[in-house]
Design goal:
The protein has 5 helices and 3 strands, in the order ααααβββα. By secondary structure, it is mainly alpha-helical. It has a 3-stranded antiparallel β-sheet with strand order 1-2-3. Helix 1 packs parallel to helix 3. The radius of gyration is 26 Å and the shape is elongated.
Length: 175
């Protein structure tokens, strides 16, 4: 228990850094790097107190997997930061929204007025200004790449940890 509980807590700390705001890269990476440093110290301490063998022990497999998972979290943080920087650059390089979009008001023969937003984007929206229950068509906006990476990292790390724990503890408890 001197190995499993601290290493599990460090994994949780590293995983929680994926929920930090994207703009604070240093806090996210430093949290994960600190967890990895402590995990490496825990690994060397645990290895020094166990008998020397020519094969891997299950504790070694556990701790090495924890180190690898934390490393993957750090890699995800770097990828997310690069995508976030690209998204910020593309937003600062785009022209103001007022130049791309203008609204046209049309009146339907039934007397209902509607607003059609026309722009260079082929996915323009239709918004009815009448009080009746009308259908509103809005384009589905694509999420920025960094948001998809954050969501993907959260899911991938969670599923990987879940599968690893199921397999690991099934093997440990059977033997």
């Amino acid at each position: 228990m001197n190995v499993y509980i601290p290493s599990t807590l460090l994994l949780i700390v590293s995983y929680v850094t994926l929920y930090f705001r994207v703009g604070i890269f240093q806090a996210r990476v430093l949290g994960s790097l600190t967890a990895m440093l402590v995990m490496a110290t825990l690994f060397t301490q645990a290895s020094s107190h166990l008998p020397k063998t020519s094969y891997f022990k299950m504790v070694d497999v556990w701790l090495l997997t924890c180190i690898v998972v934390i490393f993957i979290v750090i890699v995800f943080h770097v990828m997310i930061d690069r995508a976030f920087e690209r998204a910020e650059k593309s937003l600062s390089a785009s022209p103001p929204a007022g130049l791309l979009e203008k609204q046209v008001t049309r009146i339907h023969p039934s007397g209902v007025s509607s607003t059609l937003a026309s722009s260079k984007d082929p996915r323009s929206t239709f918004v009815s200004t009448s009080r009746s229950n009308s259908i509103q068509f809005r384009p589905r906006e694509r999420a920025p790449l960094y948001k998809n990476l954050v969501l993907g990292a959260r899911v991938v790390i969670f599923v990987a940890l879940l599968v690893f724990n199921l397999v690991y503890w099934a093997i440990v408890l059977v033997n």
